[in-house]
Amino acid sequence: MSTGYPSGPCNAPAQAYTASVQRLYDLMRGEWDGESTDRIVTVPNLISLIRLLMIPAFVWLLAHEGTEVWGFVLLGLVLATDWVDGYIARRTGQVSEFGKVLDPVSDRVAIAAALITFVVVDALPLWAAALVIARDIFVLLVGAIALLARRIRIDVRWMGKVATFDLMWAIPAIAWGGLNLPLSHAALACGWSLYAVGVTLYYWTAGLYLRDLVEAWSPPRTD
Fold first, then answer.
1. Cα dihedral 139, 144, 147, 149 sign
2. DSSP string spanning 98-119?
3. Phi, psi of 158 (to 5 degrees)
4. Residue 19 is assigned to a structural domain of this protein
């Protein structure tokens, strides 16, 4: 997997650090080195589906006065279990092509639903939500073009996972403060700081995905 760093002696420390973090990350998640299957009915895919079905529930709770805290709890549960389905798939040999699509789609749909809900209840500025959603649509289009035109699935980059994890904390923190819940000032300060870092990484990886598409589209070299 590419780290996104240019090659060269000056960047060797950064490359080594990223590689070591990637190895630790893979070890913690039980990275699967075997082949994926075409099965659809698997335990990890069921977990991803349950996470999708929980989205309307946390949206309803967040949108109604007096139940916002429970909405945050359920949203946190949906986002915090992001790693569960992938971990189980790798540990039990149930990695599937369908799951490779369903898992990230579940994350994106959950984040998009939360963003739209927060904007509707005036807990998050429209521009902040639009930046995240626009980037997700762009990456989705890049992946769809590569899959349909070249039958190539562009792998999720590690830095993109870091950006998503960052925003999973930033957006709820901003919304918590926007709804004037307890410790709202601290939540806003922390949330906007994380948001700035997360969005920067988000668009950086979007550029890397675009480069992946260009490389996939280019004819293979013969030399």
1. negative
2. HHHHHHHHHHHHHHHHHHHHHH
3. -60, -40
4. no
**For residue 93, what are the domain limits?**
34-121
What backbone torsions phi and psi does residue 37 show, to the nearest 5 degrees? -115, 175
CA distances from 54 to 48, 50, 77 (A): 10, 6, 9
Give pLDDT tens digits for 175-189: 999 999 999 999 999
| C-alpha atoms less than 13 angstroms from C-alpha of 107 in its C-beta half-sphere | 23
The pTM for the full model equals 0.69
98, 166, 157, 158: which is closest to 132 by C-alpha?
Answer: 166
Of 125, 136, 128, 48, the closest CA to residue 86 belongs to: 48
Cβ proximity of 164 and 107 under 8 Å: yes
Q: Give the end of a domain, one of 72, 94, 121.
A: 121
| Of the candidates 193, 118, 115, 205, the residue with the CA atom closest to the CA atom of residue 156 | 205
Residue 99 sits in the same domain as residue 174: no
Instruction: Report d(CA 133, CA 55) in Å as an integer.
Output: 17
pLDDT one-digit tens code per residue, 191-217? 999 999 999 988 888 888 777 777 766
CA distances from 167 to 129, 130, 131, 161 (A): 11, 13, 12, 10
**Residues 44 and 90 placed together within one structural domain of the fold:** yes
